């Protein structure tokens, strides 16, 4: 009986520890640290790179090497916490199975990082050059991320899965993609007004706003992914 109670308590603690809010908070803090590191690096480069904007920015008392280290560490924290958030979001739906594990191996982590970095660049270029390609990329990348995180798929296979999910639920996917794009646009618009406030507030609002929009979007896409997986007899 005591053993059973201990087992139940362990399960409750585990479920609470992996609540989506926990990795979400870590992701927000890591995003702020990443922005701080980036601003510090730009600040240190102002004297030697004339192309860098000469304006007041928030900078930590770090050297250029220290800023680079902060960028690397916070980038790793962002990627790992985002992976944990995907697992927690999937668990919160109540449809977890023993096939999924919150452990992230080195190879899997590298693929997640590749999806995040490559997807971010592709999305930005898509919106900058032509708006429609940006929406297309934004509709596929979250599914690719979830497939890599939950099923440990290769990037090639994850892209195929993502394309299948988009074709299966085009209307919900389009709606979530549009809302995510509008959310990012709103954060950018708010950034125009926060340029009138102290730089520390501007960086904090921008980092937190961007992180929250991304997390909400990933949560919604994770739900769509799991619904499609159950429909096809998957996880």
UniProtKB/TrEMBL annotation:
Residues annotated as transmembrane: 20-45, 57-78, 124-150, 171-193, 205-225
UniProt keyword list: Membrane, Transmembrane, Transmembrane helix
The name this protein goes by in its record: Uncharacterized protein
Organism of this sequence: Natronomonas moolapensis (strain DSM 18674 / CECT 7526 / JCM 14361 / 8.8.11)
